[in-house]
Amino acid sequence: MRKALFLFLILTLALFVFARDYITIGTTDKIRILDPADCYDYFSSNILQNTMAGLVDYEVGGTEIIPWLAESWNISDDGLVYTFHLRKDAHFMNGHPIDANALKFSFDRVIKLNGDPAFLLSDVIAETRVVDDYTFEVTLQYPFSAFIAVLGYTVAYPVDPAVTPADDFFYDVPIASGPYYIADWERDVQLVLKANPEYFGPKPKTETIVIRFYQNASTLRLALESGEIDVAYRTLDPRDLLILKTDPRYVVYEGQSPAIRELVFNVKMPPYNKVNVRKAIAYAVDRSYIVDDVFAGTVEPLYTLVPIGMWSHLDVMPERNLEKARELLRAEGYSESNPLEIELWYTPSHYGSTEADVVQVLKEAIEETGLVKVDIKYAEWATYIDYFINGYIGAFLLGWYPDYLDPDDYLWPFLSKSGAASMGAFYENALIETMMIQSRAESDVAIRTEINEDVQRVLAIDVPYVPLWQGKQYCVTYPYVKGVVLEPSQIFRYYLLYTEE
Amino acid sequence: MSLKWYILTRILLAIPMFFILLLLIFVVLRILPGDPVLSMLGGKAPMSVIEAKRHELGYDRPLLNQFGDYLLGVLKGDLGRSALTKRPIADEIADKLPATIELTIFGFIIALVIGIFWGAEATKRHGGILDVTGRVYAIFIYSIPVFWLGMLFQWLFGVKLKWLPIAGRISPLIKPEKITGMYIFDALFTWNLPALKDASLHIILPSVALGLIISSVFLRMVRGNMVLMLSQDFVKAARARGIKENSVIYRHALKNAFVPIMTVMGLQFAALMAGAVLTETTFSWPGIGSYLIEKIRYRDFPAIQGTIAVYAIIVVAISIIVDIMNALVDPRVRY
């Protein structure tokens, strides 16, 4: 009896001191679907980026495109035909080869199933062709220089034709082709990744990665503090970040993020159909107030749509100038006794709990002109989209998260006629559209930069948007976790992580 | 009315109630602003894609047709597919429901134990220390939001004392084999001790937070009814016969005070399942409450409809069971 008791005690103790040979990452994000053909949200993509492979990848820590499944590629002189030469040692985890057939099957499947991200391929691809087992060819509908960048996104990751349904999405896990495979997945609870022995690339430094899903930022912080997780990634409250930054028990990593935030005007709706009104508001907004007071310096002010750190970025929007703002408003007939009255819209939960503060700060900054009265309005995200896409609201806050890292993804979706309509701006400018089509067709980066800069200058003249700030990404870990690289591409690579006591 | 007839009418009456509820949720979802397709695609996809999606999901069809299909589906036990994940909703709910039931059961037990014993003890000495503290406790705890109490617990027992895990149902990598989906019972059935220990530790904070809040309702209910019972003649008679006070309280008074308490208990069990929504989000408990919140956020019509239908079935079933139990305990209820 005593022996049994002793054994029991030892076993219980062993349970407590049992060393962990895995890294646990906590997040408030969700996984929606892990089929590349339908996956279009940040975290689902991030899991695919760690478990699958694509034709091309972003270099670690940078934005340059590097070979992955494709060892090299040629682009025809007219910019229409892309020929990819594939590496011959790439296999899915079940042993099936990742060859040109798999790529053709996958690209055609994406276009046929027409899932959420499918338009990224279907809008540009005319035809796909298997030249031989390891040569894959794509013909475009029109020359599109950002196409290679698009291929870096998960929508272009090949799936195994032998086991993937051709006419429906799959809802469980894909056959791995990347550094990890998914060993266990319980939706909204946890995901367990284990090193994929068949992967042709560098071996993961940690055999097992566990991801735990939390419902809100405060639980995520508590989970980190209680030691339940080793890494907190997306998304802690800015105020919590400030506190954790000063706490020596944790390491706070800070990286650039391609996510931008902007104020949108519906240019068809009075009074925003007057360019002077839009410009006056652009002069009145106070970015430093937002950056310092609301975000405690955890974001950067932004003066154009193309984010800081990306080629073609050019500051075009004016610095704050209340005199200029008043001048423009007076020119439109507004005065202290007859102020401009506007509704400023935001959505309370989609962009985090800081949004209500942002809109309050904006209101104060704009009202400081003395010539504008701002009425703050809000709607839940689903309603909000309904409102702006149908043109019911005139001035509202939106955010943009890129699909591919190219200035094109920050200009075309905002300033082309179809893009502006889907943003609720309804902006139309034939000249700017022609310029962007030129830039898309051009493969010379220097020439594209020139055109992109001109496009941004037009943005400052017409002001359908007022870019406000650019986010940063954060990751908080215990000091024993090493290998965290916060990339401009936002790909969080788990295979680089390791622990060191 | 015989008991058989009573039960039958009770069940028949529940059917129109259930369908009115389904119709209500269907209509309300569609009257409220917010387009499910737009929120799914996040305003990023071109118009053509949005239209195609709307057509694919059948949202461009007449409302009456949509409701007809939905009703037919529910009758056949098919709740449709989630617009967001595209998985069958019945499967998704079956994944989540055991977690909520598990949490509710433990929360309920805690509430019952605290509520009944404290309530009964408080009436033993009317105006005594247990009575006064009980009344203060009931008011105090009832006015505390469950998420606030939850966060306090997480901070105290998870971060400061490091005694208990603060979120989730079980630690990664030690999930027990699935039988009921309720980890504690599954771990017991398969005699998986590490999993049993881990799951038990995980359920303490959420179930205590949930149980405490509900216990105040029970406490007041038990106390109120007991005070009433103790002034009845049969209690006086029992005391006069020299029966021990404990026996008077628990075997005579409590038993007779039970009819109204049982009704409230039934309703509270249903309310617990709903109260679990807030508890679940606070403790990242992957139950049906968290599921519903997530689906509402994305305007996932089929999933919201399905979840509410399941809730409705549970609430209706519980109210039927409570009525039947009451009818068994007290035959006067049947007439």
From TrEMBL, chain A:
It comes from the Bacteria. It holds the Pfam family SBP_bac_5. Its main location: other. The keyword Isomerase does not apply. It is found in: Cell envelope. Keywords: Signal, Transport. The keyword Transport applies. One of its GO terms (cellular component) is cell envelope. Residues 64-420 form the Solute-binding protein family domain. One of its GO terms (molecular function) is peptide transmembrane transporter activity. One of its GO terms (biological process) is peptide transport. InterPro entries: Peptide/Ni-bd, SBP_5, SBP_5_dom. PANTHER family: PERIPLASMIC BINDING COMPONENT OF ABC TRANSPORTER, PERIPLASMIC OLIGOPEPTIDE-BINDING PROTEIN-RELATED. Belongs to the bacterial solute-binding protein 5 family. This is Peptide ABC transporter substrate-binding protein. It comes from Kosmotoga pacifica.
UniProtKB/TrEMBL annotation, chain B:
This is Peptide ABC transporter permease. Keywords: Cell membrane, Membrane, Transmembrane, Transmembrane helix, Transport. Residues 97-326 form the ABC transmembrane type-1 domain. GO terms for cellular component: plasma membrane. CDD domains: TM_PBP2. The keyword Glycoprotein does not apply. It is found in: Cell membrane. SUPFAM superfamilies: MetI-like. GO terms for biological process: transmembrane transport. It holds the Pfam family BPD_transp_1. The chain crosses the membrane at residues 12-32, 103-120, 132-157, 199-219, 257-278, 308-329.
